[in-house]
Write a structure and sequence with these properties.
The chain is α/β, with parallel strands linked by helices. The protein is built from 16 helices and 12 strands. The strands form 2 sheets. Strands 3-2-1-4-5-6-7 form a 7-stranded parallel beta sheet, with helices on both faces. A 5-stranded parallel beta sheet has the order 9-8-10-11-12, with helices on both faces.
Amino acid sequence: MNILIDINHPAHVHMFRCFAHEMIERGHNVLFTIRDKEFEKNLLDAEGLPYVNLGRKRAGKISRVLFNLQCVCKVWRIARRFKTDVFLSHGSIVAAHVARMLGKPAIAFEDTFNMEQVRMYLPFTSVVLTSDYEHPIHDAKVLKYPGYNELLYLHPHRFTPMKREEVCRLLSIRPEERYVLMRFVSWHATHDKGHKGVSFENKLEAVRQMSRYARVFISSESPLPLELAEYKLPTAPELIGHVLAHSTLVFGESATMVSEAAMLGVSGIYLDDTGRYYTRDLQQRYGLCWCYTESPEDQQSAIAQAVSLLSLDQASLSARMHAASQKLLSEKIDVTGWLVWFIENYPSSVDTIRNADEAFWKKFK
């Protein structure tokens, strides 16, 4: 089977890398198509996975439309040469349209629920895979599974973190020293329209307050201003999971990174006016994160919550978060193992999922 995976964000490389390796080991062919956007190339090179670079996105609405049209043409040619049997993505409009043009199935994961994008790919997509919480897509194409996207690569079957001593050495800190990871995004995605994120003043305040309790490292999609440059996370992008695993707290504008932290039993604080269904689920069902808006008042409340967590006894906080993550893992599946089964048995796997009971899902835990 020839599987083409279209990537729109570095997080999507993490999502599908374990799946790609396993499918290749099982005799299938996998090819990624990427945009020259952030560090997708670095991640795929580190994994030794094959890809084709479609070029760099341009700023401006018209330029973006033209670039997406170019991507459709390029992926169409690539897919024909690759003799693609199935397209896989995280809600890729390009993959959905090319799949329809070639008469092939398009399978998409969805967890951001940006309905502007969903409306553009849903009519051309065969199946949409979502977590089992309530969300706004009510369509016959939706299949729910008991898990989160982040479990595709952070489930214990797929990920074993480095020892703390090794991570601390990479960060140039003492093994017993606590550290906080902050994540700030660029706000250039289509679903980021109207968002401003954490103000510069509150970023400085957050660093100042949290530095009283732990070392602070910042991961940022945009270049850091001079005042924050010294806090830049020094590790390679492919090591982020290992850094997260031993952090005390994750704070910032990335729902994905806060969710990744939750899978690893690390508390997270997420700021976004729109929010995400999965971060709310993680907060309400497991108490693994705290969600705030971008309002000035909520930014201050989020900083106060971070300080409150850092003020707690470290052993007690770690035990509390570990217990919550173990509960999560006991109720969720190894999503990669399930996805391998789903793709290899498609399309009959669709009906199996629609009629699946608890005994079926236990096979993937």
